[in-house]
Model the fold of this input.
Amino acid sequence: MADKKDYYELLGVPRTSTTDEIKKAYRKMAMKYHPDRNPGDKVAESKFKEISEAYEVLSDANKKQQYDQYGHDGLKSAFGPGGFDFSRDFTHMSDLQDVLGSIFGDGGGIFDDFFGGGGRRRTRDGRQQGADLRFDLEIDFEEAIFGSEREITLPMTEECSKCNGSGVAQGSTKETCRQCGGRGAVVSGGGFFQVRQTCPSCGGSGSVIVHPCTMCQGSGRIKTRKKLTLRIPKGVESGSRLRLAGKGETGLNGGPSGDLYVVLHVKDHEIFQRRGDDLYCEVPISFEVAAGGGDLEVPTIDGYAMLKLVPGTEVGKVFRLKGKGVPNVEGYGRGDLHVRVVPEVPVRLNSKQKKALFDLAQIMEGNNYPEGQKFRQKVNSFFERKKAMGK
Done:
């Protein structure tokens, strides 16, 4: 243990710090180095384990006294020959959970069931918050732009109506757990080596169900399908999350319900492409309008708008229509519409049309096609350089 860092230095507190000051320092550092906030960062993970080890020792009066008097060597009897084991249940694990709960919220919510987080939070009186739920919904482009209402049906669990969520059969009550005496936890070991664990018989509630409800089999909840009306605000995009507070899984033993998170996925559109609050589209134009200029109707989400094209409009020229894009979901105005004009080559020409094009070509001059003229000059220069090299 000679190479171990000083616990007080790890937490950045003086040796005269109170328990509350140590807890406050740990909370601050845990927020910074917690693995959930630093995914894949081995350095942060190692640092988090170090500060958690320091907090486990300094928050326990007996271990703190041994450490203050004998340093790391004084903790050998407390942690055993293998040293500190980050994965086991510590004597002060309830304190650690309380600290982390203040960082990530009670129970972790949606991160529990869908993003790999920890278990749902249970209070000392046995109440347990319901899990947060996630529902993925595909919507049309028009719904994302203009907003809409959707009725969704999703499977979930809710409080058993027969036992009112208690899990106990009518006429019966829960009994105090004999293994933990109602404390919800059992402590094994002695001296400096004590391990506090959730009671395996009652799951930490302190009581057991001897006669379970016949409808829910003692779980206090039943599976059902529920219809909800969802309001989709205008301006949402793929990946937007809508939170419906209290619409998640029902809690246990009178605990609060979790939340429902609806993740939106917007279908691709055949006319418009979206980037942020801006829209993009391509509009084909006839070659005679591109050459001679004229009016061009272009689509916007509000209807048609008119563009005035000058003679000789370049292929692929982009026009910006300010304020014709997507309404910002936070209410900060609208994006722009970017229209790219693409001249279209006529097809299926009859003999009269072909003759007219031929006659037009006969009277055209080089300066009518400046880009073509520039290209030919570049090609001629290339061949001249090649000839000068004798190639």
